Model the fold of this input.
Amino acid sequence: MFLCYFIFANYEAGDENILLDSTLIATNTLAFNHQENWNLFPNPTDDKIHLSGILSENSLVRFRIVDHLGKTVMQKKRSNNSSFWDETFDVQNLKPGIYWIEWEGAWKTYSSKFVKL
Done:
């Protein structure tokens, strides 16, 4: 099923940054776009989870893990001289459940769900 809504409005500054994508996930605070060029594995996991992929820009990246209530349970920042990223997170101390890993580059924020056993 495909559902589409339209609204007509006058141009406002910043409208050129609007992203229309069928993979857009809305949360209570931000919208995240799943990227096909990122891998999150193993999923589900019981001790470590790996995130690897390519960001179009070389910059400081902020990573955080959020629980089902929206509480940040882990975070870190890293800079990289390459557009390829490979991060490992030790999640063995997290309680079993569903979590979101979010990563933010200079221009976009991404998110992916994983299960902690």
Notes: The first strand starts at residue 24 and ends at 26. The two ends are 33 Å apart (CA to CA). The domain at 31-116 is CATH 2.60.40.1930 (Immunoglobulin-like). Residues 22-34 have pLDDT under 50 and may be disordered.
